[in-house]
């Protein structure tokens, strides 16, 4: 009897593993199909000046709505695409869409696209150059984000790729700064222009004063190296106020100002902010 139970438990475990494996394989083949059909979408999350008066840049975020499951988070499908060797197809798709959408926005707006570490092992410079040429977007309006851990993957080669992209006029940002491994020792040598401080530093800034000090230190260090600072994941007015009091960021990205939105909504958002600015200016003039 004991033996039978043991055997039964084992089988249940195995069949659960099987089911998970099959589910993943199904998701992978669905993703392959979606990519082939150009069925991914791109949402854009604006980055604002800290006073909220202006949008400077929008981050392109890949979206996949599965026909049966609904939205699949990018944290899931980007990893699947990486495992399938298809992530550069995702990158190409997002880049092309982002560059053409950016052309429909006010000229002072840039667009920022995330790269996978695997992109940096491909001919990504040629891919980017080709898409810029095809769409006609000024390279000065394109930003590319790489995570800190990407920089540790074959550092010499990665740095050469980033340097080449910069020489073409593209801005390079380190994403999720503070979550990878010790960039402090080589931050001065990296060919980057912007650091995006990870939202884990912001979540608890009122209560966790030690972590807030780490954030302040990272900001000061980045600034002293001539880098621009974006703070991600700012959700509340209170967080925004504290960051502003300390002059922490050049740009703020987070739900406090805006969630990701369709590309077609970006121009309207900019117009709304511009109207607000001119209303404020006329109030100041009258006063
Ligand atoms: P990320 O590049 O750090 O993008 C920011 C993520 O934080 C987005 O999640 C965004 O919706 C979310 N976010 C923005 N503001 C807030 C906030 O105030 N609070 C909270 N809690 N979250 C906020 P999303 O769109 O789910 O993307 C997750 C990650 O997936 C991205 O992190 C990025 O690493 C990756 N990803 C998304 N699109 C692409 C892509 O096209 N290519 C690659 N390689 N990776 C992508
Ligand atoms: Mg990003
Ligand atoms: Mg980020
Ligand atoms: Mg992040």
UniProtKB/TrEMBL annotation:
Domain of life: Bacteria
The EAL domain, residue ranges: 24-274
Protein name: Uncharacterized protein
Species, as recorded: Sinorhizobium alkalisoli
């Amino acid at each position: 009897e004991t033996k039978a139970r043991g055997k039964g438990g084992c089988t249940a475990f195995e069949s659960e593993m099987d089911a998970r494996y099959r589910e993943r394989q199904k998701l992978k083949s669905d993703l392959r199909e979606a990519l082939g059909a150009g069925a991914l979408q791109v949402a854009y999350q604006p980055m604002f000046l800290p006073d909220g008066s202006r949008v400077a840049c929008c981050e392109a975020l890949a979206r996949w709505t599965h026909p049966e499951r609904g939205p699949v988070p990018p944290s899931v499908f980007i990893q699947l695409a990486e495992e399938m060797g298809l992530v550069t197809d995702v990158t190409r798709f997002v880049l092309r869409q982002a560059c053409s959408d950016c052309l429909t926005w006010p000229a002072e707006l840039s667009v920022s696209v995330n790269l996978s570490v695997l992109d940096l092992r491909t001919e990504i410079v040629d891919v980017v150059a080709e898409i810029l040429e095809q769409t006609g977007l000024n390279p000065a309006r394109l930003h590319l984000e790489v995570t800190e851990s990407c920089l540790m993957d074959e550092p010499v080669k990665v740095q050469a790729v980033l340097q080449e992209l910069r020489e073409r006029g593209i801005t390079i940002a380190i994403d999720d700064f503070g979550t990878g491994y010790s960039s402090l020792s080589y931050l001065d040598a990296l060919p980057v222009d912007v650091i995006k401080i990870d939202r884990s530093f912001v979540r608890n800034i009122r209560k966790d004063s030690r972590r807030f000090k780490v954030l302040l230190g990272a900001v000061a260090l980045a600034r002293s190296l001539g880098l621009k600072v974006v703070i991600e994941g700012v959700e509340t007015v209170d967080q925004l106020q504290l960051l502003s009091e300390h002059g922490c960021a050049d740009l703020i990205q987070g739900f406090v100002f805006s969630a990701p939105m369709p590309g077609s909504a970006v121009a309207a958002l900019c117009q709304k902010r511009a109207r607000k600015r001119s209303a404020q200016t006329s109030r100041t003039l009258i006063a």
